[in-house]
Design brief:
four-stranded antiparallel sheet, 2 domains, three-stranded antiparallel sheet
């Protein structure tokens, strides 16, 4: 049997070339896939709905970056802002800056609120100080005019002289408040409204005479009538004060 070794060799070589060609095609195909996978990073992609979906599924971005991106898109939709000219990276960076700005603005706003509150509290305390300390009231005289029908006096009358001392550095035009009479143990005997509408110079005092009828059916009236002057102390709470320069302070508006 005659064998053509030249022809056999050619066939073997042809098969080998075909196998190499097939392998080359496979390699080229794999390279195309790899290159496609390793193409432009998602952070350089321009905004679009498809890119937004890619961002959501991306393994290149952290969850924080994805959250910034989602927040930016949501904000852009709410204010009708066009993001089409921005890359994913720009969108994320801008959103970080926007949120930082919001935080800073809120911090400044809270600081301003605190400053105003502190100023208001300072002003309140200054006004309370004027209410509580501008006028001191003392009881310097007390007497009783007893009922005498012959003199047309049908009820006992308590007569008192108060000392009104302006301890402020302003002229007081007038004031009103409540004076409370207490016994030597600090127990309340009776409270009376006091209104004074004459000027008192700064740093000076004046006396004020007043009287009221005793209601014999009220224990507090009888006790005040019968308690000696030296065993009575007074406490005064200012409700309103008017200074000569025009300032008016009301406790109801301060507290």
């Amino acid at each position: 049997m005659y064998v053509d070794f030249g022809l056999l060799k050619g066939r073997v070589e042809l098969k080998r070339l075909k196998r190499k060609k097939a392998a080359l095609v496979i390699i080229v195909s794999l390279m195309v896939v790899v290159l496609s996978a390793c193409g432009k990073p998602i952070t350089e992609e321009l905004y679009s709905e498809n890119v937004s979906q890619e961002v959501k599924n991306s393994t290149q971005l952290t969850q924080e970056e994805k959250d910034y991106y989602s927040s930016a898109v949501e904000n852009a939709n709410s204010v009708s802002t066009d993001l089409s000219a921005k890359t994913v990276s720009q969108i994320i960076t801008d959103e970080k800056e926007r949120q930082l700005k919001i935080v800073e603005e809120e911090k400044k706003r809270q600081e301003e609120i605190k400053r105003k509150q502190e100023e208001a509290e300072k002003e309140k305390q200054a006004q309370l100080k004027l209410l509580n300390e501008s006028i001191t009231v003392g009881l310097i005289k007390k007497s009783v005019t007893y009922a005498d029908s012959d003199k047309w006096i049908f009820s006992d009358i308590i007569n008192m002289t108060l000392d009104l001392n302006n301890t402020s550095d302003k002229v007081v035009k007038g004031f009103q408040g409540v004076i409370t009479f207490e016994d030597m143990f600090g127990n309340e005997i009776k409270s009376l409204n006091v209104k004074y509408d004459n000027p008192i110079e700064a740093g000076s005092s004046t006396s004020y005479d007043g009287s009221f009828e005793v209601n014999q059916f009220m224990d507090e009236d009888n006790e005040l009538r019968d308690t000696p002057l030296e065993k009575i102390t007074v406490d005064f709470k200012m409700d309103q004060i008017i200074f000569d320069e025009g300032t008016t302070i009301k406790r109801s508006e301060v507290e």
